[in-house]
Design goal:
About 30% of the residues lie in helices and about 25% in strands. The chain is an alpha/beta fold. It has two domains: about 140 residues, 3-Layer(aba) Sandwich (Rossmann fold); about 180 residues, Dihydrodipicolinate Reductase, domain 2 (2-Layer Sandwich), CATH 3.30.360.
Amino acid sequence: MQRKPNLAVVGATGLVGRTFLEVLAKRNFPYEHLYLMASAKSAGSKIDFQGREYVVEELTEHAFDKPIDIALFSAGDGTSGRFSPIAAAKGTVVVDNSSAWRADPQVPLIVPEVNPQEIAKHKGIIANPNCSTIQAVAVLKPLYDRYGLKRVVFSTYQSVSGSGLKGIRDLEEGLKGNDRKVAYPHAIAGNCLPHIDAFLDNGYTKEEMKMINETRKILGDDRIAVTATTVRVPVFNSHSESVNAELEKPFELSEIRELLAAAPGIVVVDDPSKNEYPLARDAAGRDEIFVGRIRRDFSIENGLNLWVVADNTRKGAATNAVQIAEKLLEIL
């Protein structure tokens, strides 16, 4: 693209929307005009960004009548399902952070370090994967390419910021001794809830099925056996995951560490003798994905255990979306 794009942020007043702006500024994303949009409830509010005051406009069916090249959406499934096609029909490329389009076979599901080649196949909408999936597949991709992947078992420990401001407030109040239960059916302070999103008839939650299906879609291989248990924990920021992988070929642990250390966006923190391993606190506010506790699973042939941590509102949402937008600039 020769000129700077016109850019919109939809859901600009929400937790991820505001993080979009932080990441855009940090990465010096180029734009000619910036439009901030939100629901009627938030319309008219003002946001200071890069030395300028922006008035948030209401997201309506006519919001994309003006020329907008790229729109970063973080406004929920229903809103995205309604407005993304409208924006795409007007010539805007939507990068959507909700789950509305992730399972659609016509919509690319993108982690730029993993499958950037799929971006060019978009038809106006690109899906940003689930936060817990993003950090997992970025680590699995180099292993998949080198050794092949037979099976993966995910056990996640996901922070309350994954539920937005409601989840954060539930934990804040819970730590004060008030069992506020707005985001969750049970108190989150001092608790672990094996329940993220709604339960399905198969006994899994939607979050667990997202990880299963999205992992296969992003890696482009439906043969991989995947299962998941996702748990909400009383941590404000960053998701932590135990990833148990069964590779198709033998490996040396030294090779695994070297491979992951060389992978884009990944930082290896793995020295248990010094109590060094990825921590949610250390990942908060960072864009990298941290991996450690790299060790064999002796219970199966070619088994591997990993501990993966990343900030879910940064790489798990806003940063990944902005990285997709950066790739779009190369092909628009």
